[in-house]
Amino acid sequence: MINNGEIERIQINVTRSSLPPYEEFIEMIKPIWDSRWLTNMGDFHSALEEALKDYLDVAELSLMVNGHMALELAIQAYGFPVGSEIITTPFTFISTTHAIVRNGLQPVFCDVKPIDGTMDPAQLEKLITPQTVAILPVHVYGNVCDVESIQEIADRHGLKVIYDAAHVFGVTHNGKGIGSYGDCSMFSFHATKVYHTIEGGAVASSDRELYEKLYNLKNFGIRGEELVTDIGANAKMNEFCAVMGLCNLRHIGEAMESRKQIYARYEQVIAGINGLVHLTDPAQQSRNFAYYPILVTEEYPCDRDALYERFADAGIHVRKYFYPLTADAACFGNRYAEAELPIARDLAGRVLTLPIFEGMTEEEFDRVATVLEREARS
Ligand SMILES: *Cc1c(COP(=O)(O)O)cnc(C)c1O
């Protein structure tokens, strides 16, 4: 668009939802007009559960209306006594902490590792008390947690391990689907994620009993026409979302390949700039290219907040994911102000998540890189 002789810039956001070809989606939803089965565990719901079990390499998978309810119901399914403690990290989306608190349980915040922002197992054990029932680590940005150390500690203390795996769709670890670690894992299929069903989520596990419990909990706790056995919620995925999921799954390879190209270009640009660090362990084997988080260190000429403003000036909406820490959210007042979280606080003050999405153009990428490079020279 030309405006007063100037090129009007089009806003670049941190992400942009992938969509399948329109005709393909329309063709796939046609059977719904014959069956009139719109929700309540229909054929597309079953088909997507099967397809995702296969793709994610997990034994059991229960689809949900969104990732948050998946996590909330996964926690509820274990029936922990009210007031029990769950050890988690604050360097995440608010959903992780809310899922604990909304179950009437206490979050206990563990610090994270400076290299990738995931739970630091070295800080974990000292937080365990007689009230601790579970550990809830987050594979933040697609960075895989130290699943071996966490499991070893959990086993020694008889604790459940529930992963927030919202960011690791399609990632593997030692040749196994990441969702097969721990007692269960929550995935999010929100429109902004690498893979989506518009809104949606799932709980993956190798536990058939958990699958059945969740089937019940996501449908009000109804067991039979005249029998309600649990205080459940309504967290069922509808058939239109399930079709979007089946359709997007056909194209997930292309979506990740497109992101991989952008990711590789960021790696090059960041390597050439003093003071910017990619927040990930470079040794990690499997990636889904979901996010590109950087840390703005003291060697860079300006701080994170100033760089955020430079991006805004250039029409680019980057995000301070994850700032503030969930432990510091206004809704909790200063309840968790005493938590010892020096690394998480440092990362939250330095992190900036850069735009990366399927189909990001060279021109869009160059506009982002230009801001990083121009500031580096100033
Ligand atoms: C997206 C996300 C959630 C919540 O998932 P929804 O599908 O949006 O409800 C939870 N945790 C993390 C880390 C997320 O990024």
What features would you describe in this structure?
This protein is of the alpha/beta class. It is 37% helix and 16% strand. It has 13 helices and 18 strands. The protein has helices spanning 22-29, 31-35, 43-56, 67-77, 94-101, 121-124, 147-157, 208-217, 239-250, 252-271, 304-313, 342-350, 362-377, and strands spanning 2-3, 6-7, 12-13, 60-64, 85-88, 106-109, 132-136, 160-164, 172-173, 176-177, 184-188, 201-205, 222-224, 227-228, 276-278, 292-296, 316-317, 351-354. The protein has a 7-stranded mixed sheet with strand order 4-12-11-8-7-5-6, sandwiched between helices. A hairpin with a 2-residue loop joins strand 1 and strand 2. Helix 1 (22-29) crosses helix 9, helix 3 (43-56) runs parallel beside helix 9 (239-250) and helix 4 (67-77) packs parallel to helix 5. The two termini are 30 Å apart. Residues 1-6 have low confidence and may be disordered. The protein binds pyridoxal-5'-phosphate.
